[in-house]
Automatic annotation (TrEMBL):
This is Outer membrane efflux protein MdtP. Residues 240-274 form a coiled coil. It comes from Caballeronia ptereochthonis. Residues 1-30 form the signal peptide. GO terms for molecular function: efflux transmembrane transporter activity. Belongs to the outer membrane factor (OMF) (TC 1.B.17) family. InterPro entries: MdtP/NodT-like (IPR010131), OMP_efflux (IPR003423). It is a lipid-anchor. The lineage of its organism: Bacteria, Pseudomonadati, Pseudomonadota, Betaproteobacteria, Burkholderiales. Its main location: membrane. SUPFAM superfamilies: Outer membrane efflux proteins (OEP) (SSF56954). Keywords: Coiled coil, Lipoprotein, Membrane, Palmitate, Signal, Transmembrane, Transmembrane beta strand. It is found in: Cell membrane; Membrane.
Length: 495
């Protein structure tokens, strides 16, 4: 019994020593000395509009929102831009890169197996740990001091993610990948609204050129009429020069408008990513009637409708996972390494049964003293997360501001447009009256034509308002997220 008891004691002694060692060492591992309080998410009541901001229509933009204008040219330009625009290519490349990063991080928790083959020609020192092998004693199996060692086999390693550090790193990478996908939708929205803005900028300028040409014809007739009267001595040359000055002013406006069309077209070509001949001619079309709509409430719905906010939200979520990974780094890590193959000091003995080698190496790594590196890493992760939370909160406030300002501007433009239409009606009455006098022979043709100029000037002012309304309507579509729709967001839960 004593012999058996001694054997049992010897068998348990290493385990007891190991447990005692762990009991002594574990309390001495690196500790989290301080972790700052996470910042709070923006309050729901701040994601709303003032009560005095409203439009005639209610609702959110639809997918492919630009098709509501029923303009085939615009549809073609936006579709082309969403495929060929360099910024779209960059966004898609960033998504592919983020997916590769996820796969790279994910492989860290998988079993790794490699094939090994090594040849080592070495000279053994007679004064080192392998000193006896430096002798040349073939009878004893010593053929030193030169040896050609060969190793062939398979090596494997596996990190055991006990505390979830690897899982947190994978989750953080997935969060970045999801953010990049949302950013791609944000780029699509940016490109589509920019194309629409440029397109209707061109169409508005086309309409302006038409009004200016009409005004130029009247000015040209006025110059001819005053020139004929001045030549007969019926009036002073002053009126002629005033008419010429007005004609030159209109010609200058025409030149400026035509230059603006060329500039807008070049901006469109660069945005679409077309070559010198890759952009079709843009034909004039009538400006659409405003169809702007504003939802009655925003709240968390705005967060789901704005791809840029969704991207920032994913970055914040990824920062929480980085904090989890930083905390897990304070705990012990465990891995297993293994090798199976052949190892021999002589190549002739390499593939013999006696040269077989098997290694199984479980490893436990416990941080004890790290000079504050782990705490600094956790602090950096926490502060980086807090910074992202505040940037997200500010982005939400900016989004609400954009919707409010654009909606308010559209509301004001609607009122201005109605007033301008009434003004044109009043001025048009004077024009119609003068033209009626001309038809009865009571006034000259010049007077009838010149009576049209104030109406044309007011029509230019109305055109400017219409162009601004379309521009603001597109801006509101962008502020509301276009046709983007993500899952309803849940509250951020800092860790």
């Amino acid at each position: 019994m004593n012999a058996r008891s001694n054997r049992r004691d010897r068998r348990w002694r290493p385990r007891i020593v190991c447990l005692a060692w762990m009991a002594c060492v574990l309390p001495g591992c690196a500790l989290i000395h301080h972790d700052s309080t996470p910042y709070a998410e923006i309050a729901p009541e701040q994601i709303n509009l003032a009560n005095d901001i409203h439009l005639a229509r209610d609702g959110w933009p639809a997918a492919r929102w630009w098709t509501r204008y029923q303009d085939a040219q615009l549809d073609t330009l936006i579709d082309q831009a969403l495929v060929d625009a360099p910024t779209m290519v960059i966004a898609r490349t960033r998504v592919a890169q983020a997916k590769s990063d996820v796969e790279l991080v994910r492989t860290g928790s998988s079993l790794q197996v490699v094939a090994l083959a090594m040849l080592d020609r070495e000279h053994v020192s007679a004064h080192g740990f392998l000193g006896p092998f430096a002798m040349n004693e073939p009878a004893q199996g010593l053929t030193g001091p030169w040896y050609t060692e060969g190793i062939v086999g398979l090596g494997a390693s596996l990190n055991v993610d006990i505390w979830g550090k690897q899982r947190a790193q994978i989750a953080a990478s997935l969060g970045v990948s999801n953010a990049r996908i949302a950013e791609t939708s944000a780029v699509e929205l940016e490109i589509s609204t920019d194309v629409a803005q440029l397109y209707y900028g061109i169409q508005t300028t086309y309409r302006l050129i038409g009004l200016l040409n009409e005004s130029h014809e009247i000015a040209a007739f006025a110059v001819q009429a005053h020139e004929a009267r001045a030549a007969r001595g019926l009036e002073s040359r002053t009126l002629l020069e005033e008419a010429r000055a007005q004609q030159v002013a209109i010609e200058r406006q025409l030149a400026s408008a035509q230059a603006q069309v060329r500039q807008l077209r070049e901006s469109m070509r660069a945005l679409v990513g077309a070559g010198p001949e890759g952009l079709r001619a843009i034909e004039p079309v009538a400006l659409p009637v405003s169809q702007a709509a504003l939802p009655a409430t925003l709240s968390y719905e705005l967060l789901a409708r704005r791809p840029d906010l969704q991207a920032m939200r994913w970055y914040v979520e990824a920062s929480f996972d980085r904090i989890d990974a930083a905390k897990a780094a304070f705990y012990p890590s465990f891995d297993i390494k293994a090798f199976f193959g052949f190892d021999a000091l002589h190549l002739g003995d390499l593939f013999t049964h006696a040269s077989q080698q098997i290694n199984l190496i479980p490893g436990l790594y416990l941080p004890i003293f790290d000079g504050g590196r782990l705490n600094a890493n956790l602090s950096g992760a926490r502060e980086g997360s807090n910074l992202l939370i505040e940037q997200y909160n500010q982005a939400v406030l900016n989004a609400v501001r954009d919707v409010a300002q654009t909606g308010s501007r559209l509301q004001a433009l609607d009122e201005e447009t109605e007033l301008q239409k009434r003004r044109i009606e009043s001025i048009a009455f004077t024009r119609d009256s003068v033209e009626a006098h001309y038809r009865r022979g009571l006034t000259s043709r010049l007077a009838a034509l010149e009576a049209r100029q104030p109406v044309i000037a007011e029509q230019v002012a109305l055109l400017t308002l219409n162009g601004q309304s379309i521009s603001q309507e597109i801006a509101l579509t962008k502020a509301l997220g276009g046709g983007y729709r993500a899952d309803p967001p849940v509250g951020l839960t800092p860790r």
